[in-house]
Amino acid sequence: MGSLRPTRVLAYAPYNRWALHGQWEMTILHTLRLRSAEVEYVLCDGLYSECDQFWAAHNPRPADACLGCQADVTKLCAEMGMDYRWLGRYLAPDEGREALRWAQAVPTEELLTATYGEWQIAAWVRMSLQSHFRTTEPDVGDPAVERAVRGYLHSGLVAAFALDRLLTESDPDVLLLFNGRQSSLRVALELARARGIRVVTHERGQRPETLLLVENATVLALERVRRYWREWGEIPLDADEAAAAARLMVDRQHGRDLPWKALSAPPQPPAEVRARLGLSPQRPVWVLFTSSDDEVAGDEDWGSAFASQRDWIDRTIAFAAAHPELDLIVRVHPNTGSKRSTGANHAQLAEMATLRNGLPPNVSLIEPDEDVSAYSLMDLCTVGLVWVSTAGLELACKGKATVAAASSPYSHAGFVRTVPDPAGYETLLDELAALAPNAACPEIRRGALRFAYGYFFRLAIAFPLVRMPDVHNGVLAYSSLEELLPGRDAGLDRCARILLEGEPVCPPPTAAELARTTDAEDALLAGFGPRRLTALAFAEEIIADASLLQAWAAAFDGRDDATLVIHTLAEHAEQLVAVVTSAGLDREDGPDLLALEADASTVASIDAVFSRLDVADDFAAPRYDDASVGQLAAG
Q: Model pTM?
């Protein structure tokens, strides 16, 4: 009886100039060989006239691009002891000429839809075109854009010819690819899937020194996240998991534990942001977070029922114009083009700039480079509205009502509101308009933290074997292949099982996990939400000068979780009622006032004293008066 053949793993790696990804990839390939797999490593030897190593938006292609790239990747392979082959050996000379002839002959109007036989070359290189120019819609009427598009089409067909032959000759069981979404990587993914070859794509995880593996799809595919939620969405977090998810959300606000550079400024004091933007604590604040979507636009997984992001923004502004009782802030994503971004989406920047024309008085626009923290806006808002930004998940982790207008990793999960039909959008917003300022819901937070733990922890594979001193560079944390043997590193073992044994990229819950209770989550959520503010005032002082009470009413009304406890002796009750009535504060939507003869327990539970009297020594709570009550209201 013959033995089974070893698993054949083919890795195609045209972009190892990004050395961090090559270090991850070659570490995995080494460990697969140590587990008796047959490994073939194929690199690019300067075949492409356009590729993702050089994008016009921020890193234009130099004349010696291929020479320098080949030098970098061969040096890395030598340092890591990895043998390789060049893809060029699988390309016939006449195929290179045919690819160039075809790319130059495609009519201009067909450049973005061009096919070669059954190969959908234009569709396969579309994501690279969007990244190359940082635009969702490449303008082929621009000669520079047209030249680049033809270059990508030529390169895509060259890749198809060579990779098709490579797959035939290698006959792999598994194809390992970086991301699977960029030009020739996408070509390799599509050709392999058409042959029934299992593909595993990899990318940096959602935290430093973690790796993401995705089966039979690009790393942008949302099915892996949806599968996770189907299996884990009803499973409560344990105490350690709940604490980790909550801690990570705080770390992200301060630019810590990020897989990429921070795009938002650190959080700023709420009162400072309110003052800067002219916001009243008595009015609900809605924040619309735009997305810099040039990397995902056109991907069917990330679609929207709205005609465009701009259409959604315009509809939201129109709703705000019809509801002057709320304030809407449009926060343009910093990655659209700012000092923190990688290049700029100039078309989107120009489009966002036109929003300033004719904005209603209750709508303001924050430009990408304005130093206003997205996290401070999340803290201030009552409703958050997002396109595909991770801000939607972070808003929900704060318990905020969130509307997702397009598909994203979390939009299917139930703790955010979605818009399946734009015809019902305004009806949905009408429902949310009833929320009190700064409302927050613990059940939204519960669901979001469950999702966040899976997204940032369960779906990520810890990879400490490649240290990350920064987001661009890696340093090997092992010095011999013996350290890659089975049982030496849990993350590497998991990668090997996924590639060689077909283990799910996110293991399903165990029986013990299915039997969990919500106790740990309940403990974390205890007391969550806007804490009711209780302040102490004195009837005699208010009766003597009613302007003190009017100042309170200007800062708080019936929508606020705030109660003014007025210490009132029996002989002053009638006069106090008269003052409240004459000030018009006995109306249904007026501030919550409670007159009583306060005892020691009441005094012990107050958060503030509202008085002009110097009573600091008599109470543990801080004192505010009519001049400073705005600071109390601002939080």
A: 0.83
